[in-house]
Amino acid sequence: MVKSKQLSLFGLIGITMAFFGTVRSVPTLSITGWTQIFYMLVAALLFALPIALMSAELSTGFPGEEGGPQVWVKKALGEKWGFVTSWLLWVQMFFGMVMVSSTVGVLFGYVINRPQLSSNNIFIFAVILISYWGVTLLNIKFDMVKIGGNWGAIIGVYIPFVVLVILGLWFFFKNGIQQISYLGNFKAKDLVPNFSDLGSLTYLSGIIFIFAGVEISSVHANNIENPKRNYPIAVITSVILLVIFNLVAGLTVSNAVPLGEMQLANITQPYLIFCKDLGLPMILVNIISAMILIGVLVQLSAWVLGPSKSMIKVADEGNLPKFFQKRTKRNIPITFVLIQASVISLVALLYVVVPDVNSAFLIITITTTILYCVVYALIGISAIKLRYTLPDIERPFRLGNKGNGLIWFISLLSLISVAITMIVSLIPPSILQPSQYTGYIIFQVGATVIMVAIALIIYKFKKPEWKKEK
């Protein structure tokens, strides 16, 4: 048996950084002004680190089994909750991909020098449909992941992020702190949230979304040299670097955008401000917009098939009717791919119902975070239970040398942070009108309950003949 090549400490740090490097979340971070420092530290210390460390133990404990979270939850809590986990990791994409797709319309408006289109909700809705169905049909016909490759990430994510940080720092050193910006008139109390304004706390959910999917890096825990020592170092280092880079980008954008004018779905806005102020040619904005647009389309393309391929394994195990087991000649899970495109089209109608693009973008971001939190709650419970039901399995990375004290502490910390995130997520954001508060709460509670309930109902009525014959 050939031993797989081991990752170095710096290699794992690079992979983790690459997974979370994105410019799309910067406006959501920036709109909170100085408070983003507090929010990022909370998101990193109470959310990202505990979940990453628990996932590492679970991943190294079951190295030969594909499926990640659904496998861990299935072994701890049974097949039903394993199915719920895989289901939620699929359906969260319905909301997440609408959010990602919405930036395509905004970016396209700047590429063609029609920036007014970025705030046109009908245009954004139309572009979501065209872009998502477009990448879906292309993925059915071609291997778009291979075509896009790493260049899509380099062109659409890394270069724009580095350029944003450089321009932001240049703007700051030239102009200092702008009094009309989100950082103006600084007072020490600005560093912590204003708890009397509950609506502002909702942004914590959007910032936590930056770290959603943190458990994915745990798949490399078995391939790193000396995982007991190096994995926690890699995760902690990655999170620290992510906090620093995001805060540099977030604070410089907060300093550039005038108070009350932040456009959450429009990452092009700060580039435009920087180029105007620094005397750079405006064509740079068009180029950067086109580059980010490429990155978004590559990301959409990767997500078209990824979760669907996980779900078809669940279907093959007999948790869904045989209709869901259909594949094309290229082994594409065609039923899942078409269903997710159809549901994403329906979710995109929120941009028609809620005309303000900012509000619709934030609502969908928060919905995605809530669904992730349900999965993370199941992972936290599973991590504790598996210590007692399967105590003797080899765990190359284990929280605590002896006893179960540390796993209890880390798991409870993650469960508390997940509970706080879900509670905060149900507070109507301050950018909504009071008349929209009830609708917001009904939407978030309804979407979460319905998505979990559908999984439980399907599992309850599953039939033995659904299982795929070997």
Explained architecture:
- This protein has 470 residues and is an all-alpha fold.
- The chain has helices spanning 9-20, 26-30, 36-61, 69-77, 79-111, 121-141, 144-175, 198-201, 203-208, 227-256, 268-278, 283-319, 334-347, 350-353, 357-389, 405-425, 437-460.
- Helix content is 69%, strand content 0%.
- The protein has a single domain (9-464), classed as Amino acid/polyamine transporter I.
- It is globular.
- The chain contains 17 helices and no strands.
- The longest helix is centred in the middle third of the chain and has 37 residues, at 283-319.
List keywords for this structure.
single chain, Amino acid/polyamine/organocation transporter, APC superfamily, 470 residues, AA/rel_permease1, mainly alpha, transport, 69% helix, membrane
